[in-house]
Each structure stands twice: as structure tokens, then as C-alpha cells.
Write a structure and sequence with these properties.
The strands form three sheets. Strands 2-3-1-4-5-6 form a six-stranded mixed sheet, with helices on both faces. The protein has a six-stranded mixed sheet with strand order 8-9-7-10-11-12, sandwiched between helices. Strands 13-14-15 form a three-stranded mixed sheet. About 2% of the residues have low confidence. It folds into three domains: 159 residues, P-loop containing nucleotide triphosphate hydrolases (Rossmann fold, 3-Layer(aba) Sandwich); 175 residues, 3-Layer(aba) Sandwich (Rossmann fold); 79 residues, GMP Synthetase, Chain A, domain 3. It starts with a strand and ends in a 5-residue tail after the last strand. Helices cover 33% and strands 21% of the residues. Strand 14, helix 11 and strand 15 form a beta-alpha-beta unit. By secondary structure, the protein is α/β, with parallel strands linked by helices. Helix 10 packs across helix 11.
Length: 441
């Protein structure tokens, strides 16, 4: 069952993300000195006083949003409120009561949800009385807070724990698989996630880079508990020219680090760019499984078998690691083959988890060496003595040699190809380490 949920709401630029970070004790949400940075709901599990709960940071609520994206931000906040067990309404103690604060407080009173009023930006709590003005909102006693320094956050969390309903009988366990949806901005990652989940889970907008934070969603597929991570659009480092993009890139890199398998989405209508290969290779080098998803395939005029074969051949020529990666054509708009992508991701994870018996590893290694000897150096014979798989996810093999430093990189690639020929490992990197070992008894 789900953990109890606490949603942080309020108008823009009152310090919601700063409070979110303070509670978690790490920089998970993006914080920048300008309003409207947090557009999507950001989820994270945390604990206080022995109680675990899910903390949700929301986009700022606007009383009369004029622009389309502001209306969607308001919709996201409403959705968070609809799924929360406790609400923390954050207001700005320096500015005093704002008309939007009154509007939001009215929404919360009518919702009937337990609500804690956090009056932020009161740096000197001992002498501060600015929070008293907020009694007029009718939400009970205001709680003074300085989220940036952490003053008052402990008292606030005590109130949150007191307001939380009893825990469900079965707390949510760890997930079986984490899947990150990665790619350049505006290739359809959020649309893909929404199509998979069947709800408007993240904002979809034609402004590139709308999704700036990595957003976690839990789902069950065939009894497997999956964490789906929708990442911020990855840009080249030279394009990262402000704090928001910088932290967004760090967030995406963190999402890759937390994932088991990455779905690399590309926009086939716009064409596959070099940056798509860089993003995928970043995940590959990190040891993650990869499924290549050719999104917007429904918009390609010639979608016959010949076009697909040429597309795959060109991809694998441009990105050598894609020789081992499954390629799926899909449409986030229509839902075509979107569920199949998750099925393939599960198979890729099964490949990453393979364990090969040591006797079988050495049998294959002997056959590969018999077929092609390692290049010999001028200081004597280079011998590969024996090998063993020492880890999985991704598979890692250690090969012992009398002269490991003389084994050339191209020969290691030959061994990796031979291991793949024997055992598959589709969609997963294969890693080989050479270690020195004397062949004397």
C-alpha cells in the first residue's frame, strides 16, 4: 500500500522547494531565485520521528492563471491536494498576507484536509511576530519557519507527524526495478510517461525543457514493482547557461545513477542527433541497461520494413554500443507499442541479472583464446589463465593473466563479443577486468 502523503503547496516563490530540500536533507528539488521554477510534482520518501511518508513539492498556485502553462501548474497542485493526507501551506512572512494566500486557504478549508500553515522567511524566530497576521486565514495556529536555515523545521515536522493518519497495515516495500526515461528536451518523454500511466502525470507542453526535475512514479506490472523516473531533458554542457538548466542536468544524471534500465527516447521525425548518442552512451558507461525508443514513428511517411531496417542499420553504425541494444519504434501520442517498451525493459533487466557458472565462463574463454590468441608483447607470452563472473547488474567478469597490462583494448572487445555470443546480455553493458595472477602453484 502507498505511504501517507504530505503535499507542500502555496503561491510561487514562497520557499516551497527550499522547505522540501530542508526536510529531505539534500538538494533534490530545484531552487532558483525566480518564481515558477518547480512546475511538476516532485516526490520523495522521507522519515521523521519514526514515521515514513511521501513528500510532494508542487508548482505554485495562481489565483487567476492567464497563460496555459500556469493553468496546468494549478491543475498539478490540485492533483497533489487530491492525493494528499496532510497539506503544508507555505506563505511568505516578509510580505504578509497575500490575496492568493487567502484564495488557497479557502480551497484548503473546503477540502477538509488536515492543513499546517508554515510562515516562511522569518529568520529571527525568537523575535518574529509576523506569523501572527496569518491567523486571519482560518487554518489554526501559524508555524514560524526559516526553511533556508532550518529554523522551525523540526517543530513543523512534529505537527506533520501528529496530523498524519495511522500508517497503512502494509507499508510500501522497495521496488524491484527502476526505469529512467532519458533523452534530449522535447522528444516526448513526459507524453510517453503519461501514455503509460493513463493520466496527466507530468506537464506536457511544447516548450522544450518543461520537465526540469526528475519525477518518480510507482506502478505494478505483472507483479513487479517498478519505479518510473521521468527525467529533465538532457542538454549538452555548453547549452547549460543558467542555474535551472544546470541543476536540471544534475537531476537527470542522478536519475540515470538511480536507474537499472534507461529508456532512451528520440524524436525520429526531427532526426536522431549526436546528443542522443551522447545521452545513451552516458547511461551505457554507467553500467545501465538501455532500450532505444524511436518515438513519433507514426509521423514517418515510409514506415515499412525496409525503412526500419535502414534506420536500425544507421543507428548502430553511428553508435557502436547500440549493436547490443533493442530498438523499439513507438508513438507516445497514440500509445502504439508503449506497453511493449516496458516488457522489453523487464527482459533487459533479466539479462543484466544473469549469472554464469565459473566452469562455463572458463570453457567459453578457452574456446575464444583457441580461436584467436591475445597479441604477444616483446617481453614474453601473454596468457589468460582463468576467469569468473564476480558481479551482475551489469555483468562483470574478472580475467586473470600473467601480463594483464599487455592485453590490448581491441582484444578485450573481442572477448566481450564472444561472451555476448555465448550468453546474450541484450541491452546490457558487459564489463571485463584484467588482474595479474601468477600461473605458479
Amino acid at each position: 500500500m502507498k505511504l501517507r502523503t504530505v503535499a507542500i503547496v502555496g503561491r510561487p516563490n514562497v520557499g516551497k522547494s527550499t522547505l522540501f530540500n530542508r526536510i529531505l536533507g539534500k538538494r533534490l528539488a530545484i531552487v532558483a531565485e525566480r518564481p515558477g521554477v518547480t512546475r511538476d510534482r516532485q516526490f520523495a520518501e522521507t522519515e521523521w520521528g519514526g514515521r515514513r511518508f511521501l513528500l510532494v513539492d508542487t508548482g505554485g498556485v495562481m489565483e487567476r492563471p492567464d497563460e496555459r502553462i500556469d493553468k496546468e501548474v494549478r491543475g498539478q497542485a490540485d492533483t497533489a491536494i487530491g492525493h494528499a493526507d496532510v497539506i503544508v501551506l507555505v506563505v511568505d512572512g516578509r510580505e504578509g498576507v497575500h490575496p492568493v494566500d487567502r484564495y488557497v486557504a479557502d480551497l484548503l478549508r473546503r477540502s477538509g484536509l488536515p492543513t499546517i500553515l508554515a510562515v516562511n522567511k522569518l529568520d529571527e524566530l525568537a523575535d518574529a511576530d509576523g506569523h501572527l497576521d496569518f491567523y486571519e486565514l482560518g487554518l489554526g495556529e501559524p508555524s514560524p519557519l526559516a526553511a533556508l536555515s532550518g529554523k522551525g523545521s523540526g517543530d513543523l515536522l512534529d505537527q506533520v507527524i501528529e496530523a498524519l493518519p495511522d500508517e497503512p497495515t502494509d507499508a510500501e516495500e522497495d521496488v524491484d526495478l527502476s526505469i529512467a526515461v532519458i533523452g534530449r528536451p522535447n522528444v516526448g518523454k513526459s507524453s510517453f510517461v503519461n501514455q503509460l500511466l493513463g493520466e496527466q502525470r507530468v506537464i506536457v507542453h511544447d516548450e522544450a525543457g518543461t520537465t526540469r526535475d526528475a519525477i518518480d512514479t510507482r506502478l505494478d506490472i505483472d507483479g513487479r514493482r517498478i519505479r518510473l523516473i521521468d527525467t529533465a531533458g538532457l542538454r549538452r554542457q555548453s547549452k547549460v547557461d543558467d542555474n535551472v538548466e544546470f541543476y536540471g542536468r544534475l537531476r537527470a544524471a542522478s536519475a540515470i545513477d538511480r536507474a537499472d534500465v534507461c529508456l532512451l527516447l528520440v524524436d525520429t521525425q526531427a532526426g536522431v542527433a549526436n546528443q542522443d548518442f551522447r545521452v545513451g552512451f552516458e547511461a551505457w558507461e554507467a553500467g545501465k541497461g538501455i532500450v532505444f525508443v524511436a518515438n513519433k514513428w507514426d509521423l514517418i511517411e515510409d514506415r515499412g520494413p525496409q525503412a526500419l531496417a535502414e534506420f536500425e542499420r544507421d543507428l548502430r553504425k553511428r553508435g557502436h554500443f547500440l549493436r547490443w541494444v533493442p530498438i523499439v519504434t513507438a508513438s507516445a501520442l497514440t500509445g502504439q507499442r508503449v506497453p511493449k517498451v516496458i516488457d522489453i525493459a523487464l527482459k533487459v533487466q533479466a539479462e543484466r541479472e544473469k549469472r554464469i557458472p565459473t566452469a562455463e565462463v572458463n570453457s567459453v574463454l578457452r574456446n575464444l583464446v583457441r580461436r584467436r590468441q591475445p597479441p604477444q608483447g616483446g617481453r614474453g607470452d601473454v596468457r589468460l589463465l582463468y576467469a569468473s563472473q564476480v558481479a551482475a547488474s551489469p555483468p562483470l567478469f574478472v580475467i586473470f593473466s600473467n601480463r594483464p597490462h599487455d592485453v590490448k583494448e581491441h582484444y578485450i572487445r573481442y572477448l566481450k563479443a564472444g561472451f555476448r555470443e555465448a550468453w546474450g546480455f541484450e541491452g546490457s553493458p558487459v564489463q571485463i577486468k584484467l588482474k595479474k595472477r601468477s600461473d605458479r602453484p
